[in-house]
Amino acid sequence: MELIFEKSVKDRRGFLPPVSDVPVQADIPAKYKRKDDCPFPEVSELDVVRHFTRLSQLNFSIDTNFYPLGSCTMKYNPKFCEAVAQIPGFAHLHPLLPQLRKGEQWVQGALEVLFDMEQLMCEMTGMDAFTMQPLAGAHGELTGVMMMAAYHKARGNKKRYIIVPDSAHGTNPASAAIAGYEIIAIPSDANGVMNIAKLKEKISPDVAGLMITCPDTHGVFNSQIDKITQMIHQVDGIVYYDGANLNAILGRCRPGDIGFDVMHINTHKTFTTPHGGGGPGAGPVGVKTKLVPYLPISRVVKDKDGTFRLNYDYPDSIGYIASFYGNFALLLRAYAYILMMGKEGLQDVANHAVLNANYIKERLRDILDLPFDRVCMHECLFSASRQTQRGVHAIDIAKFLIDKKIHPPTVYFPLTVKEAIMIEPTETESKQMMDQFIDAMHEADALSQSDPESFHDMPRTTPISRPDEVKAARDLNTNYFAVQGQ
Amino acid sequence: MTTPYIANTPQEVKDMLNVIGAKSIDDLFVDIQPHQRPKSFALPAGKSEFDVIEHIKKLASKNSSELVSFLGGGYYDHYVPAAVTALISRGEFYTAYTPYQPECAQGTLQALYEFQSLMCALTGMEVANASLYDGGTALYEAAMMAIRLTNRKKIIMDGGVSPIYRKIVKTYTSNLDFEFAETPVVHGQSDRGQINKLLDNKTAAIILQNPNFFGAIDDHSDIVAKAHSLGILVIESVYPLSLGMLKTPGEMGVDIVTGEGQSLGLSLNFGGPYLGFMTTRNKFIRKMPGRIVGQTVDKEGRRCFVNTLQAREQHIRREKATSNICTNVSLCALQSAIYMTLIGKQGLKELAQVNLNKAEFCRQLLEKIDGVQVKRSSPTFNEFTVQLPMDASVVVEAMIDKGFAAGFPLGRYYPGMENYMIVAVTEKRTKDEITHYAQCLAQVVNKKELAHSS
Q1: Are the CB atoms for B138 and B258 separated by under 8 Å?
Q2: Any residues with CB less than 8 A from the CB of A480 and at least 6 apart, and which?
Q3: Strands B68-69 and B404-405: what pairing?
Q4: In angstroms, what separates the C-alpha of A413 from chain B's closest C-alpha?
Q5: Which domain holds residue B240?
Q6: Of B7, B244, B254, B447, whose CB has the highest number of CB atoms within 10 Å?
Q7: Residues in chain B closer than 8 A to A102 (CB atoms)
Q8: Hey, which residues 189-218 in chain A have their CB within 8 Å of chain B?
């Protein structure tokens, strides 16, 4: 498809700014001005509307396709949550208003949302306090690790290491490293969970903490998880719960009850705020009492008379981790979703997410290898090792599915399983949709036996075929204007 | 069923359990031991969609979003054209995920390539990433990038950089062995004398902002030249809409540009989601954090787009990645790309001029008020500093009763500047609103009793 820049025609325009109705024509000295006009495209509003509408039609999305991307929780994003986020009383609210003198009275509704969310999240997770500020899951991880560091500093602990399982999301080791820690990776055992014997070997007083998901990225709930949290506590370590998979255990288990000290929630996973093509998200972080002093500022408090205000007076706080109070418009969507779902609705999220994943697991076990053959939680992990022997890799199966108008599952993650295919159907998909997917997978398997070569030019029904990724990295072209100027 | 978002019927649940060989859904949770079950899960019962919307509307009515706003400080009340909102509301955009499978994500990928190109054009730089969280965290990422590029550990921050951003940079680096120095602002602009004294061969980067927090415009070319002579990188945080008119960081020779993209078509949303962006020079691209979209060809030689240079990123490089960022703010980047495309070359220039005119008109009116001074030792864009004869926070509070968010008092972040505030005037403010604002401000500052109520 043409780039918008290629549709540009001199002197065409798509927007008229409000008129300058003031009797002043101001100017600034030439030395402070840009030399040439900014080369934005010159297109009409209709050009813009067609261009971006057509671009949107090149995407697979939840609204148009089954999207069982493991570990990403691509479930239906209710439309009313979008409507709620557009309410002008919130959408047009300036974040500096509460920082004016007595300014909190002008944002009472917004502060109440943040306060209520903290209460709701504490009850769902068993944590003692939450900050809504982190702007994504990885941002929450970094916030959590910084609080961990502040805790150890306050206690005079000299700690160097953070432990992660080898199946962890890449963000876990990256967040820990950016906060100044070194990483120890622990392998999984035959059941797909952290190998406790190996953990024992690596634990020492130098360990600052451990970061882990539960259920983990193998889709398995570790029955020994509280043993692990105890082992870390024995060396005064902090245990971090990566909430990426919290949707699997809503109402069934709370991280705060099984020894976790700090955690984040991905609102775009568990509480179905839209993924937006890769964000924005929100990553509220919850802590147990011992970490409360280190929470970022500000915090929302409720006074005896029922009014809400922002408190900045926490001398041990790690400080400012975001400009304001979090990705408010996302938190508002999550708030609406939680209120609508209620206790039983949220329990059903976990129930049906787990039911659907186990159904797919049982229906595909005859054609795909199960590295960990046991009951799974919200996602099931397979290996395409059998198909690979026929010359058909996980990526080929992924491309086959695209031609079936199904977004592929996550492939090649976790790194612990060769030719990994990780399927997360979510609770919002119907049995009919899953059966269609299962049929497609069986068809792919049959084709891998009858005509493995045929996979290599898939997908065939999309506007483009497989891109040359090597060329993309070698002949870098990331900016239209740079290339034009050459 | 308890919600309309779960499709399984009781019969289907039974059928699926049969296939699985389980008696009940509870059986599937067998790995969670009895002692690991929740001690409590006392959440409220579910509500209907209608009831939730009514509840949230009631909460919204407790906010004062209808104030006529002269409040800026890095976040501005600009007009968002209807086409932007309509296009961004397409489910094909907002219910997709990170484009891991390029064949079925060309819409997002091409739009992000266009976003990167637009940001480069606006800032006068060579390469851009596909977004970071917000302006403050983007500045922190730039500081980390400069430290990686130079292998030095000292950062100098100009006092004209948003105080909120400076706090963020310090928070993130507090557990790391870095050295920070801050320089004051003199006559509104960067203090060359102080900066020159501090720049040395241990310095990784100097962080500047244009226009600065006080609204003053500067040309940092001289600081850039001095810094480069010592191998120091220059980072500049910018207000993107002002670049419709102002000298670009590229023209000044700046190395890394970051900023808050909220002014490019995003609502204020009480603080987020916003749009952090970063542009830089070609030679630094491999040390840049965040996703980058690159153009390539498919098997048939057709142009297409992919995430590229992924070896910098956490999902490949894990603890050796350039950043821990995963989810960024793609949809906000797309939103700003639609906005920039729509306003176009001519619209951007005119919009900048309208902002400049209205701010200047406002400045001239305020200057005439007894006791109010609008000192200007350097030019300003659409925001400027006002000196009042009393505590600015008291004035702003009184102005709210008259329907105005009158500005942001500087005392909160700059001790000693309690009588100052910054005032922002965007294209949305009409001549009548500005005139009324000036009249009300005159009334407020001339009521002597107010001066004592603080």
Answers
A1: yes
A2: A3, A5, B113, B114, B117
A3: parallel
A4: 9
A5: 82-339
A6: B254
A7: 397
A8: none
What's the one-letter identity of residue A320?
Answer: Y
What CATH number should be reported for the domain holding residue B415? Answer: 3.90.1150.10
Domain count, chain B: 3
In chain A, residues with a C-beta closer than 8 Å to the C-beta of B393 are: 100-101
- For residue B429, which residues of chain A lie inside 8 Å, CB to CB? none
Residues B287 and B153 in one domain: yes
User: With contact defined as beta carbons under 8 Å apart, do B107 and B92 qualify?
Assistant: yes
**Which residues of A are less than 8 Å from B244 in CB distance?**
38
For each of chain A's 486 residues, which pLDDT tens digit applies? 999 999 999 999 999 999 999 999 999 999 999 999 999 999 999 999 999 999 999 999 999 999 999 999 999 999 999 999 999 999 999 999 999 998 999 999 999 999 999 999 999 999 999 999 999 999 999 999 999 999 999 999 999 999 999 988 889 999 999 888 999 999 999 888 999 999 999 999 999 999 999 999 899 999 999 999 999 999 999 999 999 999 999 999 999 999 999 999 999 999 999 999 999 999 999 999 999 999 999 999 999 999 999 999 999 999 999 999 999 999 999 999 999 999 999 999 999 999 999 999 999 999 999 999 999 999 999 999 999 999 999 999 999 999 999 999 999 999 889 999 999 999 999 999 999 999 999 999 999 999 999 999 999 999 999 999 999 999 999 999 997 765
Contact residues, chain B, for A18 at CB < 8 Å: 79, 354, 427-428, 430
CA distance B72 to B357: 17
Query: ∠A422-B331-A3 over CA atoms, to 5°?
Result: 100
Q: Which of residues 334-393 of A touch B (CB under 8 A)?
A: 335-336, 338-349, 351-352, 354-356, 358-359, 361-363, 374-375, 377
Among chain A residues, CA nearest to B30: A375
In a domain, residue B246? The reply is yes
Look at strands A161-165 and A207-212 and give their pairing: parallel
Q: Which residues of A touch B313 (CB under 8 A)?
A: 170
Question: Residues B245, B368: one domain?
Answer: no
Nearest-neighbour CA in chain A from B18: distance (Å): 9
Q: Is A223 on the interface with B (CB under 8 A)?
A: yes
Token pair for residue B268?
Answer: 């204020």
The CATH number of domain A349-471 is 3.20.20.70: no
Distance from CA of A449 to the nearest CA of B (A): 25
Q: What is the ipTM of this complex?
A: 0.97
Minimal CA separation from B229 to chain A, in Å: 22
Overall fold of domain A84-339:
Aspartate Aminotransferase; domain 2 (3.40.640)
Are A471 and B296 inside 8 Å of each other by CB? yes
CB B233 within 8 A of CB B256: yes
CATH 3.90.1150.10 placement within chain A:
349-471
Cα–Cα distance between A159 and A41 in angstroms, integer?
54
Q: Are B287 and B428 found together in one domain? A: no
- Of the candidates A404, A361, A351, A411, the one whose C-alpha atom is nearest the C-alpha of residue A384 is A411
